[in-house]
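Can't paste images in this forum, so I'm doing it all in text. The chain is below; anyone willing to post the predicted structure tokens underneath?
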Amino acid sequence: MNSTLPLLQPTDFPPIRRRKLETVQVNLGYRCNQSCLHCHVNAGPNRTEQMTRQTVNAILQFLRAADASTLDLTGGAPELNPHFRYLVSRARALDIEVIDRCNLTVLEQPGQNDLADFLATHGVQITASLPCYLEDNVDRQRGQGVFEASLRALRTLNDLGYGRSDTGLVLNLVFNPQGPVLPPEQSELQEAYRRELHSRYGIVFSRLLTLTNMPIQRFGSTLVSKKQFVSYMRLLRDNHQPGNLESVMCRNLVSVDWQGYLYDCDFNQMLGLPLSLPGRPKMHISQLLRNDLNDNPIAVLDHCYGCTAGQGSSCGGALA
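Text version of the structure:
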């Protein structure tokens, strides 16, 4: 795989600093039942990296001590980690909001028959990847049969109350472009998704989140091999909006890898750019204190333009 790290440095991306910590985003491992082209994690069925119970307990210990309000679980497919349900149930007992970044098809994996019921029982927010409302587009990006499996999962979640305004069960969908382009305007695309999914399949959801593809890992390597990397980076830089710097996710989020080490965001984690404090160049979650991160500088390289281009992009969708 082509490494894009040397191509992202040096950088003239503006310096930014942290604010109050609100979200702890945890990568539970790189094992996944899919291998998507746009995946910035390079996850897949053959990956074996998984967070241990000891590290999960360190996460819980920090959540008890910190003022963070949200635990955001990602992967791979986070549900395939054997300690996923343990972490979710104990975090919810602490009154922490939990987000599960779900690929939908994991609900049909062996041993996951009751996963949807578990998520609903614990009031877990689901943020689910669905790169299009058309079958051909989804299967081209994610694999043959993924669209139909995703629809079955969405119907199961709808039947449990997910995506319905009167239940409190949040079901957000995620759109990624299929190639080296910026995503469409989020609110307009959301209305198209809402109309098409309901009229075609009877599916409802809470919100659509549009994410810009990051020029790292599998997607970045594809750009390099197709000689599109330079033009894509030019697109991101030319569409940089300084106003988006006020609400980029790294200001209020800390990312934790499967071994428990800290990063300013999930993208920096995939590039191996650790969060550092004075005298501590690489930190573990077990070493983090409640106020350690206040006003700490954030590690930036050229990929950060992916978060500020156009309407902006974050794990919570568009910024503007």
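The first helix runs from residue 53 to 65. The two ends are 34 Å apart (CA to CA).
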